[in-house]
Amino acid sequence: MINYPLKSVLPFGFFVLFTTSLWCQLTVNGTSLFIDSTTHLNVDANIFIDKNGSLISKGILAVSGKVESNGINDQIDNLQIFGDLSGNINLLNGNIKHLFLLKSPTVHTFLNGGSLEVSNLHFVNKYTFLTLNDTDIDIANLSNFSEVNYIVTNGKGLVGRNLSLHPVIFPVGSAFSGYYPISIASVTNNGNEYAKVGFIESGNYTDKNLGDDPIWQIENNGPIQFSMRWGNENNLHSDVLDLKQLRLYGWNGTDWISVGFDSLRGNINAGFLKTRVLLPNEFKFYKLESILRVDLSNILKLNNIELLPSFPNPFSGSTSLNFKLHKESLVTVQLFSPNGQLINEFKNKYLDGYHFENLPEDLFPVSGFYSLRFIVGEEVVQTKLLKINY
């Protein structure tokens, strides 16, 4: 049985809808509903399909409310979700070729159920959010995602994508912490690599050992590399930092372990970082730390110098030194090896203000604790750097 307000539905076998708009709920009971490729059906309400029914849509199906099905096998070529109120999609079986998110700004479209396959996901309007509850979603292609158009997860529903040697982007973010896209690339070319990604907001994970920092959950079936991209947003003053640096840790079930990076590129406006090769299930959870969240208790302050933490630290390649002077002074920076030998002296001149400098990998030939000593006039301050060889 099909409940509908207009009699332009033909009552035989597969049904062809010529009606352009419905202003009440559309319910499909015990039959198959077919929408041909020339039809644009607009349902300004909900669609329900029972367990004995099915929906095959070759045309355009636009819905303002829920799309809920317990049907046998639902195939939707073009599904548009519009309106000023939150919408829900729950397909027990089936897939969507094109999903267009047309909700008003900041209105969420929610996914429910076990899993959903979407060949093409289109963020049409700005401030468009697709929210995964406990649903896994497989996406082949993405369109128009950005720092204001992304997928929100609670760490249970994950975004799954097939990987290749070319990095594949997971447009996952959080309403609380902002947009955090992550890119994953396969390190082989057999075409079978697959990964699922979710972003867990602070306080949403019950394991107290993971703390309250936002973390990523990543599941993969092959060796991968993943990278973090960032955009224009930052909370730094230009006289404090001119390079956004990040470091990454992985949870091994007991402790957070530094993952390390093969490269770090970019400046305060754009860039990305890339991990070393990661094996399946080596780490399940990851968290990023940046200069944006420096613990003020870790800043060493004397009368004229503020010594900020080096990033990354611990490190496997290069690292950095960061300090700020309140007035112009003669500065000497010395680097000592793990056995206490002076191996380099970086500066011996008058400086003032904030200073950042990369320390290249060749300064650290062996693993262990290195010492950085800053001599500023009559003041001397020292910090430790830990080099780790993987």
Question: Would you mind describing this structure in some detail?
Answer:
There is one protein chain. The protein has strands spanning 2-3, 15-16, 21-22, 26-28, 32-35, 40-43, 47-49, 54-63, 66-69, 74-83, 87-91, 94-103, 108-111, 115-123, 128-132, 136-143, 149-152, 159-162, 168-170, 172-174, 178-179, 182-186, 194-200, 215-220, 224-230, 246-251, 256-258, 261-266, 271-275, 285-290, 300-301, 305-308, 319-336, 342-359, 368-376, 379-387. The strands form four sheets. The protein has a 15-stranded mixed sheet that branches. It has a ten-stranded mixed sheet with strand order 1-4-7-9-11-13-15-17-20-21, with no helix packed on it. Helices cover 0% and strands 54% of the residues. A hairpin with a 3-residue loop joins strand 20 (172-174) and strand 21. The protein has 390 residues and is mainly beta. Mean pLDDT is 78; it is low at 1-17, 231-244, 266-270 and 291-296. It starts with a strand and ends with a strand. It is built from no helices and 36 strands. The radius of gyration is 27 Å and the shape is elongated.
Topology summary:
Blueprint: E1 2-3, E2 15-16, E3 21-22, E4 26-28, E5 32-35, E6 40-43, E7 47-49, E8 54-63, E9 66-69, E10 74-83, E11 87-91, E12 94-103, E13 108-111, E14 115-123, E15 128-132, E16 136-143, E17 149-152, E18 159-162, E19 168-170, E20 172-174, E21 178-179, E22 182-186, E23 194-200, E24 215-220, E25 224-230, E26 246-251, E27 256-258, E28 261-266, E29 271-275, E30 285-290, E31 300-301, E32 305-308, E33 319-336, E34 342-359, E35 368-376, E36 379-387
Parallel strand pairs: 2-5, 3-6, 4-7, 5-8, 6-8, 7-9, 8-10, 9-11, 10-12, 11-13, 12-14, 13-15, 14-16, 15-17, 16-18, 17-20
Antiparallel strand pairs: 1-4, 18-23, 19-22, 20-21, 22-25, 23-24, 24-30, 25-29, 26-27, 26-30, 28-29, 31-32, 32-33, 33-34, 33-35, 35-36
